[in-house]
Amino acid sequence: MKAVLFREHGGPEKLSYEDLPKPEIGMQDVLVRVKACALNHLDIWIRQGNPAYPMPLPHVPGSDIAGIVEAVGGQVDNVAVGDRVLVSPGISCWRCNECLAGRDNFCRSYALIGAMTYGGYAEYVKVPFRNVLPIPSNLSFEEAASFPLVSVTAAHMLFAQAQLEHGETVLIMGAGSGVGSVAVQMAHLAGARVITTVGSDEKTPKAVLLGAHAVINHSTEKVAERVKLLTEGRGVDVVIEHIGPAVWENCLSSLAKGGRLITCGATTGADVKLDLRYVYSRQFVIKGSYMGTRAELVKATELFGQGKLKPVIDRTYPLSEAKAAQQQLLSRKFFGKIVLTV
Ligand code: ZN
C-alpha cells in the first residue's frame, strides 16, 4: 500500500511517500481502507520528535481517519466489511476504573492512533474495534475525518473541564484553528455568549458564521482590552486556550474573578509567566485538558449527523502531497481543517 512516513525526526522534508506492506489485523482489530485523514498539530509534534510521544521509526502519522471497513478480526461484530466508519483517535485499556467510569482519556495506558500506532497517512490502517464508529449518512469521508480529535478536545474543555453553562461568556482563542472552529460552534449551541479571536480580517465573517457573537483580530487589537469593553469591565467566565505564551497574558487578563482557564495546547511554546498573587487574589481556576472521551465523540458525531455542528474544511490535498499539507498547517494560513484524501 502507499503511505507517508518518516524514518527520522525533523522538518517536513522528512516525510516520504512510499510503499509499505498492508497491516495485518488481530482478532479484535478492524482494517480500514482510508479515504480521508485530517491533519492536527500533533502530526507536527511527532514528526519533530517529542519525549511525550516516544515511537519506533519509521512511523506513519495521522490520527483523524475516515474510510471503509476492509476486513474485521474473528472477534469483531460491531461493524461489517463495507461499512463507512470514522476512527476515534484515543486508545485505552477498557478494563481500568477510569475506563469503566467513561473517563477513558484518564486511562494510564491512554495513547493515540497515529502517535503510538501507525496512523492514517496511508491507504490502510489497523485499529481496535472499539475505535470505529459509523459515519452519519449526511457526511462525506473528508467531513467525517475533519472532526474527531478536535471535537472531543473542544467538548472535553468546554463541558467536562470548564463546566460551561448556558448564559455564561466564553473567550475561545483562535476561531480558525481546528479546536477553535468546533469550540465556537459547541459553545454557541450550549447557549453561551462567544467571544473569539482571529489573526486576519478575512477570518472574521467565517467566525461569525460559526456562531461567534464578537470577533477580535489579535494582530491589530489588544485582546484583553476588547474583552473588557465587551463585558463591561467584568471579563469572561471561561477562556479556552491552546496557543500558549503568545496569548497567555491576554487570556489571564480577560478572565472575570473566579474565571476558569482551560488549556490544551502549546503551539507557540511551553513556558508561560504566572504571578501567583494574581491567580489567588482573583480566585482563578486553571485546568489542563487532554483529548476527550469516546462518549464525547459519540455525542459530537450525533450533532454533526444532525447538522447542528458543521465540519469546517479549509483545503484537501492528495496523500502524496502530505508535505505541502503540513507546510500549510505551519503557515497558519487556513481556517478550520486541512484534510488528506486517499
Ligand atoms: Zn483504562
Radius of gyration: 20 Å
CATH superfamily of the largest domain: Medium-chain alcohol dehydrogenases, catalytic domain
Q: Report the top-level CATH class of the largest domain.
A: Alpha Beta
Strand runs, count:
17
Distinct small molecules bound, one entry per kind: zinc ion
Q: Termini separation (Å)? A: 11 Å
Mean pLDDT across every amino acid position: 96
Order of helices and strands: EEEHEEEHEEEHHEHEHEHEHEHEHEHE
Taking the sheet with the most strands, its summary is: 7 strands, mixed
| Corresponding CATH architecture of the largest domain | Alpha-Beta Complex
Characterization of the model:
This protein is α/β, with parallel strands linked by helices and 342 residues long. It folds into 2 domains: 2-146 and 313-341, Quinone Oxidoreductase, Chain A, domain 1 (Alpha-Beta Complex); 151-288, Medium-chain alcohol dehydrogenases, catalytic domain (Quinone Oxidoreductase, Chain A, domain 1, Alpha-Beta Complex), CATH 3.90.180.10. It contains 11 helices and 17 strands. Strands 3, 4, 5, 8, 9, 16 and 17 form a 7-stranded mixed beta sheet that branches. Helix 9 links the parallel strand 14 and strand 15 (285-288). It is globular. The model has no long low-confidence stretch (mean pLDDT 96). It binds zinc ion. Residues 92-93, 95-96, 98-99, 107, 109 line the site of zinc ion.
